[in-house]
Amino acid sequence: MVQYNLQMSNIKKIAYYLNPIKQLGVKNYSIVFPLIGTLGICLMSELFAYHIAKNPHSIDTFAIVGFIGLIVYFSFRNGIRGGLITTLITIFYYLYIIYSRHYVGQQFQAGIETTGTLAILYLFITSIIGWLKQTIDALIEREANEKKRLHSVIQQLPVGVLIADQNGKIVQANKQVSEILGRKIPLGHHIGKDEPLVQSRLRNKPVRKSNSPLLQALLTGKEIPGKEYAFIKNEKEHTIQVSASPILNNKGKVIAAASIIADITEQKQLEKRKDDFINMASHELKTPLTSMMLYIDSLMNYMKKRNNKKEINILGNIQVQTKKLHELVSDLLDVSKINTGKLSFDKETFRLDELIKEIVQDMQRISTHHITFTSKVKATVFADKFRIYQVITNLLTNAIKYSSEKKQIIVNVKNKKEFILVSVQDFGIGIAKDQQQKIFERLYQVVDATEKTFPGLGMGLYISKEIIKKHGGKIWVESEKGKGSIFYFTIPMNKK
Ligand code: ADP
């Protein structure tokens, strides 16, 4: 039995060695096998002609048809060099036949002419097929090298990479995936059918298989931006960020998808420590600042009574600066409350149009801009008045800050069916299209040459967005660079 198996595997080896298709991609251009092979066939033909058929002319047809096959075979198996050596031996063999069969006269001339013509034909065949074989080899090698390069890049990446084929089966996973998830990833694992790779939670809710970014990228053909998942590894909570993108063929059909997994546990902890610190620091700063403002107010009243102009002037400046500092600390506190989910709202029913009118009048008193608010709409809302005041003040302050040249500002309120729409329009520096989403992110400020001179920390719009979101409304901007901006927000109408 063992012997039989050995024989089988030897036969397989020989078949593999002889099969030219199996040699594609193997850059074996040695002339040894074509040399020995062709000489062997020549020898066997001679033996057949003289000793078996006993007729020297019995191999005439074979000498042409059979040797063409041999040239094609060796050109395809061993490239141009293999084909050339076979062609050379074949031509010499033809000359040997002419010589050994004693061709004379016209027969001799026809033999030489045929050999010459066949030599040209064989060289042509050899160069075409040999070139084809070598080109295919180079292509296969290039593809294999590219695969190797890609594989080693994927292995070197500091993040986990998972690649699934179009059926959702994992075909590649680097070692980082196993390290991050704390388990070995079996190739062939079906992300849509098999058990999830980790039991994770997204925003504290267990994640269903169909929510896997890799699966979604395969099904939708769209990029799935990074989602954060929490899961337990070694009895500790870890946070990972998973994104995925589809891999499309030339026709735009999804043929695979790749997913990037990053362990952001440390980053999350650092962010939390930072948020805790900002929260604590702004709390600690706000209390003494509030008392300072009260003291300054009473001192101001005292000075006003005594009509001390110089002191009133100095105190006025201190008052303005302290107010700015107080606003900054309040913003910091709000940001940290948003991050920890502790921003609370104290809602009441009030007239939004009246609130806007008051704010516009207050701002107009201290600003050189011309702010118009002519809307006659009666807009009753159920909201946190102070927080909505904060949003409108922020939009108006920005409108003033970013339009120092054209001093016109238009505020409007409209009654839409289900909600109230508020707009604040300026004719200032405007915001480029690609920045219009980003300005609502935390600490985001547009950075370009024109804006270097504007002070600020990029917290106002982030806080405004969160406030409006928590009231069930939306906030957005329409703007053109250099022409001005219109900031809109909506707030559901109070139907009571
Ligand atoms: P801050 O104004 O303190 O920098 P905000 O969150 O209020 O922070 O605004 C974020 C960014 O959005 C600003 O830095 C500015 O680049 C841009 N921005 C906001 N309002 C306007 C506006 N009316 N016109 C032009 N750019 C604006």
Order of helices and strands: HHHHEEHEEHEEEHHEHEEHEEHEE
Tally of helical runs: 11
Q: Which ligands appear in the coordinates?
A: adenosine-5'-diphosphate
Relative helix content: 40-55%
Major beta sheet, specifics? 7 strands, antiparallel
Explained architecture:
This protein is an alpha+beta fold and 496 residues long. The protein contains eleven helices and 14 strands. The strands form three sheets. The protein has a seven-stranded antiparallel sheet. Strands 9-11-12-14-13 form a five-stranded mixed sheet. It is elongated and about 140 Å long. Bound molecules: adenosine-5'-diphosphate (ADP). The site of adenosine-5'-diphosphate (ADP) has 22 residues, from α10 and α11.
What is shown here, in short?
The protein has eleven helices and 14 strands. By secondary structure, the chain is α+β, with helices and mostly antiparallel strands.
Relevant terms:
11 helices, alpha+beta, 7-stranded antiparallel β-sheet
Helices, strands, pairings?
Blueprint: H1 2-18, H2 32-52, H3 60-100, H4 105-156, E1 160-165, E2 170-173, H5 175-181, E3 200-202, E4 205-206, H6 213-220, E5 224-233, E6 236-248, E7 254-263, H7 265-306, H8 309-339, E8 348-351, H9 352-366, E9 370-373, E10 380-383, H10 385-401, E11 408-415, E12 419-426, H11 460-470, E13 475-480, E14 484-492
Parallel strand pairs: 9-11
Antiparallel strand pairs: 1-2, 1-7, 3-4, 3-5, 5-6, 6-7, 8-10, 11-12, 12-14, 13-14
Helix pairs in contact: 2-3, 3-4, 7-8, 8-11, 9-10, 10-11
The protein binds adenosine-5'-diphosphate.
